[in-house]
Predict the 3D structure of the following.
Amino acid sequence: MKPEGDFQQATYAVVARIPKGRVMTYGQIAALCGHPRAARVVGQIAHFGPEYLPWHRVVKKDGQLASGYSYGGKEAHRRSLETEGVVVIDDKIESIDKYIWWPAG
DNA sequence: CCGTTGACCCTTC
DNA sequence: AGAAGGGCCAACG
């Protein structure tokens, strides 16, 4: 096997573990991968990441949706979140702090 | 191997 | 409260 990057695999694993109706910030995912400052890398991986992963559950720390959501734009991003019960207003998640999920609980 | 890039985060004005 | 700049880290050419 040729490890193309443990960080990528770790990111995929973390994103895949985000439960329905919850969201995570890039910083958190990066931290879980072992690099709390590598939020940018998570973004890059996310853009080229597999479509079967719930990238719509990954948002900024402010709760604002991603900038270049490749799978239908912010409109699709917002609908996906609302479908899971997340309230999105003006391309931003309302009370993001309530929807933030952490693997510890 | 070195340089550039990016779906970010934090501090300061 | 909003806007601007710098820093950080890994993947890609």
